[in-house]
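worker-03 picked up job from queue 'complexes'. Input manifest follows; two sequence lines, order preserved.
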Amino acid sequence: MSGGLVVALFVALAALAPVLAPYEPLRGRLDERLLPPSTGHWFGTDELGRDVLSRVLYGARISLQIQVAAVGLALVLGTALGVVAGYVGRWPDMLIMRIVDIMMAFPGIFLALAIIAALGTGLGNVIIASAIFLVPQFARVIRGSVLTLKEKEFVEAARALGEGDVSIIVRYLLPNSLAPIIVQTSLRMATVLLTASGLSFLGLGVQPPSPEWGAMLSNARAYMITAPHVATVPGLAIMLVVLGFNLLGDGLRDALDPRLRE
Amino acid sequence: MVVYVLRRILLLVPVLIGVSLVSFGLLQLVPGDPALILAGEEASEEVLNRIRQEYGLNRPLPVQFLAYLRHAAVGDLGISIQSRQPVATLLAQRVPFTLKLAFLAILISATLGVVAGIVAATRRNSALDMAALLGSLVGISLPIFWLGLLAILVFSVKLRWLPSGGTGTLAHLILPALVLGAASSAVIARTTRASMLEVLRQDYVRTARAKGVSDRLVVYRHALGNAMIPILTVFGLEFGYNLGGAVLTETVFSLPGVGRLIVEGIFARDYPVVQGALLIVATTFVLVNLLTDVAYAYFDPRIHYN
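worker-03 finished. Artifact:
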């Protein structure tokens, strides 16, 4: 559960950023440009004299916001599609799964790039692009879970007792699908941070001067040789948070689904 | 087997049509008049009319889509707004590079991943196993663009072992391929470990051991062949993800691949280029997946596809 600790720390730092940050994230002092780490600036300053620690702390808020919004959106859409495909079957299943196949035909970040190309850059569009990127993965997992569950005796019993489809889905199928849903949510919180910060790094996501971690790295590129600390800290932050959610997801899978434990 | 392959190829048709629809629909999703987007904001009405004529924008959408499909099928993907060159020509210059990079990356990560996975599985719960597991977790958690920056800093700037960008020799590709393949190595190592552990539990492996076959022979002759089957699928998937990761790698190392092309296309609002790049990358990914699935069916005689 070390993953849980990392995630809890991340959420706490994001929530407390305004209290913890020693400086303003957007205002720098040009006479303090690219300072190396010191007691005054733990992680040094960037090319505009802004405190890197404060920016990384405020960046945590942006990351968390993107992660929660994108994964939440994908969860709702993906669950709806997965339940319909798995429970109804027949042509809705065919149709939904073909759409999922088409979305998954764009490897990795390409689907998100397509959406950004159509909608433009910015925080809101990054959230939409990242969410749509995740929808097929949620839909697949939920569909698989619903497919196995609907053949189970307790679902058959409920149907024999005259329960309607909606009631069966809400009372039996969704609660019993919670384990894979929770595991997926944690793992996708990791994926989405890599995608969103990747978009910002390319200049196609959250735009400077926002202290989004990918955007910070994109700016820091130019100063890699003279001031490598500016790029080190946001990258390390992304890695630790992604690692935390991956560990948490793996741990939850072991805890919630003992059959998968080796 | 032949029936299975034919069926898989037939199933590709709706996916490829869907992929074309997405890439075609991109221009329709952009807010505003497509002719204005293609011609630029300050275009005169006369130019706009010519563009509408040239691109067939005044026809109904389904007719436009059919025309798009017909042109794409013969390799006509339109003209780049920025360079006025055919998109197909631009792609022909850029795609081979990305394929080379992704292929080298999968080669490196397959080697690293399979070796690490075997070592971890045969020495289960040892320090080496723990190190491999931890290493693979870090590997899938690393932002590829950050890893690229660090690699340049260490291997190009500090140690001066390898060039930090540009093209020409194999040396130029090693660092980008290593960075691009890092996550794949991790995934392949995890899959190999799990698959080997599964196979090593099988009765025929126990029988081989009982007959006195040496450990080495059991692992490499008896177990590895069967363990490789699920790993094959992962190769195909990871190759696709490497195409995606190439967008970031090519940016970090300033490489002239299709990933860079699409990003530059988005910045320049050069939609024909973006559409063409999306279409070609998705088609490549779908074909690679088909090849791995067919290989899977070929190598696993237990599975019958009807």
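worker-03 released lock.
The two ends of chain A are 17 Å apart (CA to CA).
The mean pLDDT of chain A is 88.
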